[in-house]
């Protein structure tokens, strides 16, 4: 990234938060490689703190980063960046307030899954069980407010009629060469890829005099060119209910294998019925759905000609 310019969008903040908190969780887990330390910490709140830093820091923050980055691609609208910043800081602060004190509680011997204790086991001063559990409880509410703020952001965005730009992040990869959200067939023209970052190289080229990148096209211009060259009669397979019926049969089978074999047999019958239905259904919808394209024929007709 030398000579580059980092833009700290909400998605970037969550990604950086992921790296930092996941690293903290990983380092706290190193102590478990030492047998005496692991013996002391097993089944204490230290373990709870460790795996929540790994799982929450390494998974949940990544999920929220993905939400903010991919929202315009999925729904054609941008989540509010200002609310996103508040969402990030409340979640990070709340997460550290919730699970950070659990390291201290665990090292002092508080067992996991314990919600009350006698006065004699509560500790004193800095190591007081009640104080750190109170801090942890306050942190959980801060974390909850952060997640609530994300839900509010989603509602506000859904009610906002403003559409997102075609290329809101000045992206490099091919998926941003489609509309937001993408059409059913994704690309009007299947792109021919010449570079690892094809979309970026269609927007920028190197200036031989200065060895810097200069813009030669915008995302709007690139997509307008695709539309001009597009096949106006792109053939799509007909929608089908059979895939979801087949998918629904799988949990029935697994449930039956655990609790009652008869249920598994019923699930297997449903799966076979759905598989045959999916395989044997017509590849095109009824003619009434394709009246406007009847003169163009199907993709197979075009191959034949």
Automatic annotation (TrEMBL):
The chain crosses the membrane at residues 49-71, 83-106, 126-156, 258-280. Pfam families: COX1. The keyword Nucleotide-binding does not apply. The keyword Transport does not apply. PROSITE patterns: COX1 (PS50855). One of its GO terms (cellular component) is membrane. Keywords: Membrane, Transmembrane, Transmembrane helix. One of its GO terms (biological process) is electron transport coupled proton transport. GO terms for molecular function: cytochrome-c oxidase activity; heme binding. Signal peptide: none annotated. InterPro entries: Cyt_c_oxase-like_su1_dom, Cyt_c_oxase-like_su1_sf, Cyt_C_Oxase_1. Gene3D superfamilies: 1.10.287.70, Cytochrome c oxidase-like, subunit I domain (1.20.210.10). Residues 1-194 form the Cytochrome oxidase subunit I profile domain. Residues 286-305 are annotated as: Disordered. This is Unannotated protein. It comes from freshwater metagenome.
């Amino acid at each position: 990234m030398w000579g580059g310019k980092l833009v700290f969008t909400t998605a970037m903040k969550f990604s950086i938060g992921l790296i930092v908190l996941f690293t903290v969780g990983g380092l706290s887990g190193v102590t478990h490689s030492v047998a005496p330390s692991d013996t002391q910490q097993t089944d204490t709140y230290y373990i709870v703190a460790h795996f929540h830093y790994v799982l929450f820091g390494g998974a949940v923050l990544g999920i929220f980063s993905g939400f903010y980055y991919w929202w315009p691609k999925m729904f054609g609208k941008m989540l509010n960046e200002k609310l996103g910043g508040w969402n990030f800081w409340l979640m990070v602060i709340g997460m550290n307030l919730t699970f950070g004190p659990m390291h201290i509680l665990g090292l002092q011997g508080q067992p996991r899954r314990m919600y009350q204790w006698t006065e004699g086991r509560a500790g004193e001063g800095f190591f007081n069980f009640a104080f750190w559990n109170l801090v942890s409880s306050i942190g959980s509410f801060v974390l909850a407010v952060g997640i609530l703020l994300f839900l509010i952001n989603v509602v506000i965005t859904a009610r906002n009629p403003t559409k997102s730009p075609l290329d809101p992040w000045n992206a490099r990869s091919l998926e941003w060469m489609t509309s937001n959200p993408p059409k059913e067939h994704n690309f009007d023209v299947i792109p021919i890829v010449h570079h690892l970052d094809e979309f970026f190289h269609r927007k920028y080229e190197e200036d031989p005099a200065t060895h810097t990148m200069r813009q030669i096209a915008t995302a709007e211009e690139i997509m307008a060119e695709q539309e001009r060259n597009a096949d106006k009669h792109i053939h799509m397979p007909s929608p089908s209910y059979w895939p979801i019926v087949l998918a629904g049969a799988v949990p029935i089978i697994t449930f039956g294998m655990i609790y009652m074999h008869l249920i598994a047999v019923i699930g297997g019958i449903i799966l076979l019925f759905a598989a045959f239905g999916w395989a044997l259904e017509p590849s095109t919808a009824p003619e009434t759905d394709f009246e406007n394209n009847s003169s163009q024929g199907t993709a197979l007709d075009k191959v034949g000609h």
